[in-house]
Write a structure and sequence with these properties.
With about 180 residues, the protein is mainly α. It contains 10 helices and no strands. Pfam families: TPR_8, TPR_9.
Length: about 180
Amino acid sequence: MKSLAFAALLLTAPSALAAACPAAPDHSKAIADTLAAIQSAEREMDARPLSNRLWEYWTDAPDEAAQELLDAAMRARESYDYLRARDTLDRLIAYCPDYAEGYNQRAFVAFLTGDFTAALPDLDRAIALNPTHVGALSGKALTLMGLGRDAEAQEALRAAVTLNPWLSERHLLKEPAGEDI
């Protein structure tokens, strides 16, 4: 029965889909608490499980149908089926246009295929919807580096590292011009 409802959802017009999508679960307090714990961690190995917990919050989709789309897209991406992943994420975004992770995952697929220009607007949308999405901020930094826009990349990376000082990409930070090390 669940698969019949899911199939019906996928055949519904995009405007009707967006009207049907509920708001994503509100994990803002849990995310803020987790980020505070990450920032106070004394070692990277203490911060890593906390960072992983953030992904659990971000990938908690608004409802079962959205979760199925997100999970299917991530499975397709993990098996290098980027076309199917993109198509599934397009459907997720049509259904839930206010769900940041749909945009972040679609940007990741574009990044993996070297399409940095396509990744950037999705990252900007994910960040607009969720300004503390460290994954989207670091993804934006890496995407901007791929586009050769290093100054902007450093700005995005600094924003990400401010939220998570143990971020693995922190090693890509450069000292601002004119400052002594």
